[in-house]
Amino acid sequence: MLARNVLTGFALGLLVLVSTELSAENASDKTKATSTDSNKTSITTIISDSTNKFVYRPPKRGAPAVRIGGGTRGIGNQTLELVVFAPDHTGLTTKEQPTLYWYASEPVLSKLELTMINDKNIDPELEQIVSATSSAGIQSIDLSTTKVRLKPGIEYRWFVSVMADKSQRSNDIVASGTIQRFIPDDELKMEIANADESALTGVYAKQGIWYDAIDSLTQMVRKFPENADLHEQQVTILEQVGLQSAADYVRKQK
Q1: Of 181, 177, 205, 213, which Cα lies nearest the Cα of 89?
Q2: Could you tell me the domains of the chain?
Q3: Side-chain half-sphere CA neighbours of 31 within 13 A
Q4: What string of H, E and C letters represents the secondary structure of the chain?
């Protein structure tokens, strides 16, 4: 009888132990699932929040139209259109070394040069050959990879030029815009610092900070390339400043 009771007790203990382990495994699985769902929710929230429609509001200090429209010209067997991502007034940035974007309707098979000048200096701030691209689309240069540092209050004009004929630079396809850095006040600094990734573009846009708005949004599009709403936001902001051909290209990528 004693042996039977011991055996029975051992069996019950083993059963409890197994049940406890199974419960622990199930709890762990639920925790992992919850964590995964949380990550998915976080990403979904970012994407969802970013689809709130916003409007780019040009700064009141904006100068008259200064953008040089994208050139369209035949090079060999191709017709190339070049468009800089710039408004038709002096666009603002809060950054010392912002990222500049442009759109090429065809692969750039010849050399492409990026130049930046300002009225304070005789010599260009930047003269840099950009690598040719094998495909059409949006291209960019991060000025942190150069020696250029924008000074507050100074207006800079930047050019993107495709050398159709190196011996005849007058035949270049040229597009350009202007940019000016400004120092935000403490209230705006706080608003920018407290904005999460999904809200940052809207903050910049409503404050008329063009270059930071388009950079923030483009980075989001690259991070979530399958999200159609982000593409539509990019289309919208490009259309708001008259960059229709670039907007049409983005719309086709959705």
Answers
A1: 177
A2: 72-253 (2.60.40.10)
A3: 6
A4: CHHHHHHHHHHHHHHHHHHHHHHHHHHHHHHHHHHHHHHHHHHHHHHHHHCCCCCCCCCCCCCCCCCECCCEEEECCEEEEEEECCCCCCEEECCCCCEEEEEECCCCCCCEEEEEEECCCCCCCEEEEECCCCCCEEEEEEHHHCCCCCCECCEEEEEEEECCCCCCHHHCEEEEEEEEECCCCHHHHHHHHHCCHHHHHHHHHHCCCHHHHHHHHHHHHHHCCCCHHHHHHHHHHHHHCCCHHHHHHHHHHC
Q: What is the mean pLDDT of each run of 10 residues along the chain (254 residues)?
A: 44 45 46 41 39 78 60 63 93 97 89 90 90 85 95 95 76 90 96 92 96 96 92 94 94 84
- Report the sign of the C-alpha dihedral through residues 188, 194, 200, 202, in that order: negative
